[in-house]
Amino acid sequence: MEITPSELGLVARVTNLTKSYGSAPNTVTALDDVSIGIRRGEFTAIMGPSGSGKSTLMHIMAGLDTPTDGRAWLADTEITAMGDSELTVLRRRRVGFVFQAFNLVPTLDVRGNIVLPFELDGRRPTVVEKDWIEQLIDSLGLANRLTHRPYELSGGQQQRVAIARALATKPDLVFADEPTGNLDSRSGREVLALLAAASASYGQSIAMVTHDPIAASHADRIIFLADGRVVEERGRSSAEEISRIMLGMEQRV
Amino acid sequence: MRAMGRGREHGSSILVAALSSAFGVVLIQVTGALSFMISADNIGRSTTVRMMLAIVAFVFIVIAVYVGSIVTVNTFATIIAGRTRTIALLRLIGSSARAQRRAVAAEGFWVGVVGASIGALAGTAMSIGTVRIAVAQSVVPDLDYPLFDPLIAAPILIVVLSTWLASWVGSRRVLTVSPMQAVGASGELSREETLSRTGRNLTAVVLGVTGLLLLGGGVLLGLISPLGILVGMVGGMLSFSGLILGSHLVMPSILRLTGRLLGRSASARLAAANALRYPERSSRATIGLVIGVTLITMFAVAGASYQDMMARAQAAQPEVYQGVDKVVAVTVAIFSVLIGFSALIAAVGMVNNLALSVLQRTRELGLLRALGFTAKQVRRMILAESTQMTIAAVGLGLILGVFYGWAGAQSLLGAQDGVGVIAPSIPWLLVVLCVVGAAALTLAASVSPARRATTVSPVVALAAD
Predict the structure, then answer these.
(1) Number of residue pairs across A and B with CB atoms under 8 Å?
(2) What domains appear along chain A, each with residue ranges and CATH number?
(3) Which of B376, B194, B353 minimizes the C-alpha distance to B274?
(4) E-assigned strands of B338-449?
(5) Which candidate from B191, B371, B373 shows the least CB-CB separation from A151?
(6) Which stretches of chain B sit within 8 Å of chain A by CB?
(7) Could you give the CA distance from residue B13 to residue B76 in angstroms, rounded to a whole number?
(8) CA B125 from centre of chain
(9) Alpha-carbon span B96 to A12, nearest angstrom
(10) In A, which residues are within 8 Å of B277 by CB distance?
(11) pLDDT tens across B298-339, in order?
């Protein structure tokens, strides 16, 4: 009998994950035998320089991409065995996304974007879910922007809408891909504080991919990736410590 | 890679140019052959017949070229919107906006040359083939028909020039691209502005109102004299030009209306919003089809109403109107086929517009897939967009066509004994054909973009510009 990820307190887990592109002899290996777990209720940062494989890892964990080898679970569901339509429904119901480029639907207003995951599911939010959405809108400071279109909002505001959209369905796991990459430092800090607060107050599990030590310093736990492998793992650390680790990784290469 | 992309971008413009030029060449060659046949038969009247046939042919060629130009302007504008990032980058490096626009116009020139040449070859082959078949079937006498009519140079030249001009007009937006857009982070395109066009809007309204007044005057005058048709014709042309010029004021509301018919599901609502995202673009994409359907319907309704009135007049004075209805029926049928060709060109334009707009939304479709839109939902959304545009265009065209056709027949024949004011006769066969054609067009327009939208993986799509 296999131990399930949830018995280990994990919301997502990958074992011996490998992803390579192209055929020999020009194979590029993006992930090389990676095994990690994301703990339930924690804000985890996956750090690494460009080309370290962190985005590929996120894409596979979120069911957007398939590995060459290895297995991946979301909670107790093994997603590496799923077909496209099952993965689609899984993403819709159990995963949230926050992207670097915000990626809101330009034709929908703020409220339309936030409730989009429910609409895709062909249903209206329940009373409980509605309360939750209102609470999110309030705490993210979007109450007086609900009828605005994305192009009428600043970058920081757009990213807050994306966060509300990601949290609205109370997914098992929210993936944030460089969520501050397109923001000025003040809006960036706000966004990170909001993500950390969502994890601390609502117990939302979040996995954030980033190469920014300041962004990673808001996380409870930091996993370092380099050249497709896990090279280091830390608890909460300051930006200085994280920078030092990153520099150390550079020198080892 | 680049050249391949360009080929795909310009494929439909080349097709439109080729269709227009083939149409022109066939019309000129066939009318040429016809007048040759008549002149062999009867020498005295040949020049007049030749000229009249040529004039009729040119009227239809001009209509086809006009519709084709609207389609091409729209295609180029859409292509430019998709190239914003590249143009901005070139501007950043130091290219001037004018140079960029000239480059686009040069592409347009070559699209015109290539399309017109293909069309000329195809058209010549087709007309020679038609004449040969007609001779073989003994429909026409076996004469030494001229292989080349020098007049075919005219439609070819018109097509090249109009395509070139259309690419120039369609590339207007190049001038508004700022170099800063190259360094902008997100790939969203800026919204096209439709409001700051006071001059054009005013002209459209003035033309529309004046035209409608004249048309009404023509119908009233028609009750006294057949000369009412002249006033009515001017009114019809003015009001229709007003509609085309002001399409960006009219089409969005109609699209909004048809969008509501699609239902409230997520795919339907997103589709409805997408069709209205760039009001000017969807207006231009649909107005071509509106023109085509209006003209076909107008001829058919005018013809049917005409026959109706003839029947009444015939009842009053049987001996005067013997054999007229047959001539009218044949004329209407030929005119409808000729106009149908312009509708075909417009349909090509609409199909292409939808394909390009899906291509340019790769990233957004990737987002929807990432958020949990199934492939089926994406297909349904694109089909809904296509349905919305077709219903709007064909529906408006039918209504306008019935109105103009009725007004035409009424202003020409209202004064005949025993006619008076009649209700428009609607040729139901045509309505059925239009609905079937619209359904086919809807499907055709959505197949390839839907396939493309569902085969790209979300990861690749999200990384696209």
Answers:
(1) 76
(2) 39-63+82-252 (3.40.50.300)
(3) B353
(4) none
(5) B191
(6) 185-188, 190-191, 265-266, 269-270, 273-274, 276-277, 363-364, 367-375, 377, 457-459, 462
(7) 8
(8) 25
(9) 52
(10) 106-107
(11) 888 888 887 777 777 777 776 666 666 677 777 777 877 888
Asked if the C-beta of A82 comes within 8 angstroms of chain B's C-beta atoms, the answer is: no
Q: Do A105 and B373 touch (CB under 8 A)?
A: no
Classify B100 as helix, strand or coil: helix
The verdict on a CB contact (< 8 Å) between A65 and B188 is no
Q: How many CB atoms lie within 10 A of CB A32?
A: 15
Interface pTM, i.e. ipTM: 0.76
Q: Determine how β-strand A173-177 pairs with β-strand A206-210.
A: parallel
Q: What is the distance in angstroms between the Cα of A117 and the nearest Cα belonging to chain B?
A: 7
Q: Tokens at residue B395, please?
A: 């529906």
Average pLDDT over residues A99-128: 88
- Chain A residues with CB under 8 Å of B369 CB are 88
Which residues does chain A have within 8 Å of residue B188's beta carbon, measured at their own beta carbons? 106, 150-151
Q: Which residues of B touch A155 (CB under 8 A)?
A: 185
Q: Is B409 left (phi over 0), alpha (psi -120 to 50) or beta?
A: alpha
pLDDT digit string (tens) for B261-278?
888 777 888 888 887 777
* Local mean pLDDT, 10-residue blocks, chain B (465 residues): 56 91 90 78 62 79 86 86 81 81 92 95 90 82 76 91 92 80 49 60 90 91 83 88 86 87 81 79 82 86 79 71 69 79 85 81 84 87 88 92 89 74 81 87 85 82 70
B284: left (phi over 0), alpha (psi -120 to 50) or beta: alpha
Nearest to A120 among B266, B273, B458 (CB): B266
DSSP-assigned states of every residue in B315-366? HH-TTTTTTHHHHHHHHHHHHHHHHHHHHHHHHHHHHHHHHHHHHTTHHHHH
Nearest CB to A107; choose among B185, B277, B458: B277
End-to-end Cα spacing for chain A? 40
Helix (H) or strand (E) holding B379: helix B375-413
> b or e along B125-154 (b: 16 or more beta carbons within 10 Å of the residue's beta carbon)?
ebbeeebeebeeeeebeeeebeeebebbeb
The pLDDT value given to residue B2: 43
Confirm if B165 and B69 have CB atoms less than 8 A apart. yes
Determine whether the interchain pair A88/B369 forms a contact, defined as Cβ–Cβ distance below 8 Å: yes
- Judging by beta carbons within 10 Å of its beta carbon (0-12, 13-18, 19+), is residue B255 exposed, middle or buried? buried
**B246 CB-contact burial (10 Å; exposed 0-12 / middle 13-18 / buried 19+):** buried
Interface check for A103 against chain B (CB to CB < 8 A): the answer is yes
Q: Do A64 and B188 touch (CB under 8 A)?
A: no
